[in-house]
Amino acid sequence: MRTFLITCALLTVTIALSQSQIADIVFVNGKIWTVDRAKPEAEAVAVLGGRILSVGSTAELKKCIGPKTRVIDLKGKRMLPGFIDNHAHFMSGGFQLQSVDLRYTKNEAEFANVIRQRAEKHPDRWITGGDWDHDNWPGGNLPVKELIDQFTTSTPVFVNRYDGHMALANSKALKLAGIDKHTPDPQGGTIVHDKKTGEPTGVLKDAAMSLVYAKVPDPSEQEMLEAARLGLAEARKYGVTSIQDVSSGADVRIYQMLRDKGELTSRFHCRLPLSQWQHLAASGIRVPFGDEWVRLGSLKEFADGSLGSSTALFFEPFTSDPGTRGLAMDVVLDGRFEKWSLAADRAGLQLSIHAIGDSANSLTLDLFEKITKENPAWDRRFRIEHAQHIRPQDFQRFAKLGVIASVQPYHAIDDGRWAEKRIGHDRCKTTYPFRTFLDNGVKMCFGSDWTVAPLNPILGIYAAVTRRTTDGANPNGWFPEQRITVKEAIEAYTINCAYAVFEENEKGSVTPGKMADLIVLSEDILSIDPVKIESVGVELTVVGGKIVYDK
Q: Check: CATH 2.40.50.840 for 99-213?
């Protein structure tokens, strides 16, 4: 019924627009890949009232040009629908733009020096963020608190690994959190200890991180607004016109405030924690709830950790650490995961479950199957976020249950530098298995997982079609049989993402009646050598018919 009503509404809009043929803005002389299979290519697009009025040839759309119409000559440039990011930690990204950047530090000394410089400028302010990657360092050893303690005696430090599943605390932060050699591991988390002394090294994994995060002061409203504005500028630059965000309630309020101020230049579909399902259900919220700018109704939960932190849950032990096969999260172990998921689904709320290891993906599919058997049928559109490591027998289960593989392709060329060291060659054959998902009829959508990976969708497309790892070690692609085509990657970043949040009738393709969210690229990614895609930029970003970025 919801889809029928949306279709009727869009038909009404289209009829109304067609009765008034003069557009606000018309783009002409372009190479437009519409992602609309009924009409995949065009030269021109007319926009009226924030919606697409007409799509066709430049000659055909001259009828839409009046004395006040703005006409933009694309001069043969490639136009696409605006990119949609299926998974971002948007506010974290905005704060990261203000914080220390440890992602590309080359060794422990450089890591420590960046923190030292920050502490000297702001000695009494928490240092957070960071996004460090110890696999970039010689030896690949985890950092320890002693690296930074001498520079930060009065400055609490808690900087995370780029995957968000592990972080380093200095002695000041550990003391504030009450963590010492006698502190037990919380369920679903690990406090890493020095093997000789038994003292905490400062590294905390997954649920253990909450012990320190509980002591980090909440940002002010003004600080949150500034972070969001920085993030929006980043999104405009990369042609990201919609973001499916991993949000808190405070984040949602910030997006609403910016919407009311007329400052939003990306649309947000917000995923709140699964633990909040009852509050949303009691408020009458069902997916998708909201307006064109800010929507709710999807819920996220963690089934396991991450590959880089050795906390992703596998059936077999890690090759690099045979003593573990990863971590199931505390909510999985104590039964809340299943209880909340069943109840949230009955309330008409969408489930988006983080699962990385093959066992975590399998147990999530088991849960989804249980839900379909026990709960009334509806257009639920289950999602597994990341879906990184899949047992061969589980691909058809994705397809049969209609589970959306919500993946982030840049991870393949980033993690591909070291993934085989963690889990061995054979398991990596179905790691980031983009081709296998599509060949099995699984709906797959793309995003970034920003700040775990860059927000730029062009880099995601490059990763999906080349699989050339960032260290240059795989020029022909890491497990190249999992590569997909550029057109398939564009679909995954547009119409498939729209479908993943029930919005395929409103966005995701250049189709009359849909929102006029459009981008123009510096080069034609459909015709150039895929190896060159990573250097392509966005020249123009249009949201709701308004140009919000013009390089």
A: no
pLDDT, tens digit, for every residue of 486-520? 999 999 999 999 999 999 999 999 999 999 999 99
Q: Where are the domains of the chain?
A: 1-82+510-551, 99-213
Q: Residue type for 59, please? A: A
Model confidence at 47: pLDDT above 70: yes
Rounded CA-CA distance 391/389 in Å is: 7
- Token code pair at residue 508: 């995701």
- Please say whether the structural domain 1-82+510-551 has been given the CATH code 3.40.50.2300: no
Question: What pairing do the DSSP bridges indicate for beta strands 41-42 and 25-28?
Answer: unpaired
Angle in degrees, CA 506, 511, 513, rounded to 5? 55
CB proximity list for 496: less than 8 A, separation 6 or greater: 404, 443, 444, 445, 446, 508
**Which residue in 168, 147, 151 sits closest to 159, CA to CA?**
168
* Residue environment code for 421-454, b if the CB has 16+ CB neighbours within 10 A, otherwise e: ebbeeebbebbbbbbbbbebebbbbbbbbbbbbb
H-helix or E-strand containing 124? none
Portion of the chain with pLDDT greater than 90, in percent: 90
- Determine the 3-state secondary structure of 534 from DSSP: helix
pLDDT at residue 394 is higher than 80: yes
Tell me how far apart the alpha carbons of residues 510 and 30 are, in angstroms, rounded to a whole number: 13
pLDDT, tens only, 359-375: 999 999 999 999 999 99
Contact indicator for 51, 208 with CB cutoff of 8 Å: no
Q: Which residues contact 134 (CB under 8 A, 6 or more apart)?
A: 140, 141, 142, 143, 161
| 485 alpha carbon, distance to own chain's centre | 21
Instruction: List, as one string, the DSSP characters of 422-480.
Output: HH-HHHHTTBS-HHHHHHTT--EEE---TTSS-S-HHHHHHHHHH---TTSS-TT-SSG
Task: Work out whether the CA dihedral 134, 136, 141, 147 comes out positive or negative.
Answer: negative
Lowest mean pLDDT among 9-13, 179-183, 195-199, 434-438: 9-13
Q: How far is CA 296 from CA 228, 248, 384, in A?
A: 18, 11, 18
- Where residue 107 falls (left for φ over 0; alpha for ψ -120 to 50; beta otherwise) is beta
Q: What is d(CA 189, CA 191) in angstroms, rounded to the nearest whole number? A: 7
Residue 183 exposed, middle or buried by CB count within 10 Å (0-12, 13-18, 19+)? middle
